[in-house]
Amino acid sequence: MKLAEAAAEFLASKRIAVTGVSRNPQGHGSNAVIDRLLERGYDAVPINPNATQLAGVTAYPTLSAVPGGVDAVVIGTRPEHALGTVKEAVELGITKVWMHRSFDAGSVSAEAVAYGREHGVVVIDGGCPLMFDPTADGAHKVMCGILKLTGKVPRVVS
Questions:
Q1: Which of 26-30, 51-55, 114-118 has the lowest mean pLDDT?
Q2: What average pLDDT score do residues 86-103 get?
Q3: pLDDT digit string (tens) for 115-140?
Q4: Per-residue H/E/C for 26-91
Q5: In this structure, are residues 116 and 87 in contact, taking their beta carbons and an 8 Å threshold?
Q6: Which residue of 3, 24, 40, 73 is most buried, as measured by CB atoms within 10 A?
Q7: Residue-level pLDDT at 25
Q8: Mind listing the pLDDT tens digit for each residue in 70-81?
C-alpha cells in the first residue's frame, strides 16, 4: 500500500497512543505529535511508565493500562523499545503502528517492523504523522518530501 493511503488510514483512527512522550518536552518528537493530535481533536493518549499526566491529559505506563484501549500507536521511543511495543499492540489487537523517524534512526526497528507485519499489523516505518493531513503543517510536508528522497520516509508500506 502507498504511504499516503496507510497514513490516511492511520489518521482516521480517533484514539491514538503515543509512546515516548517526555516530561521534558523540548526537542521530543513524541511531544510534538501528541500536542498536534490533541489540537486537532484526537483522543490522544501519552504512554510513559514514569508519569501520570503529560500534555495535560492522563498518561499510562503501557498500552494495556489504557482504559478502553486505543485504535493505533505512534512509537516515539528508542528503536530497542519498539519490538516490545509492537508485541503488546499485537496482543491487544491493535493493527496500526507508526514508528516515528526524521533525520536520524528515530524509533524504527527492523525486527519490530517484521514482527508487526508478520502478525497483520500495518506498520509505517518512518516519517511522522504530522507530515500528512489532517495533522500536517507546511514545514512537515516539506520535510516529508526531503526525507522520501533519503529513504527515511517509506514510499510504500507493506
A1: 26-30
A2: 93
A3: 999 999 999 998 899 999 999 888 88
A4: CCCHHHHHHHHHHHCCCEEEEECCCCCEECCEECECCHHHCCCCCCEEEECCCHHHHHHHHHHHHH
A5: no
A6: 73
A7: 67
A8: 999 999 999 999
Domain 3-150 adopts which CATH fold? Rossmann fold (3.40.50)
Q: Which among 87, 83, 100 has a CA at the least distance from the CA of 154?
A: 100
pLDDT given at position 18:
97
Give me the long-range contacts of 101-105 (CB less than 8 A, separation at least 24).
101/125, 101/126, 101/127, 101/128, 101/152, 101/153, 102/29, 102/127, 102/128, 102/143, 102/147, 102/152, 103/147, 103/152, 105/79
Q: How far is CA 16 from CA 38, 72, 111, 142, 149, in A?
A: 10, 5, 22, 24, 28
Cis check for the bond before 129: say yes or no (omega within 30 of 0): no
Q: Does the structure show a pLDDT above 80 at 32?
A: yes
Q: Which three cell numbers stand for residue 46?
A: 501519552
CA distance 99 to 18: 10
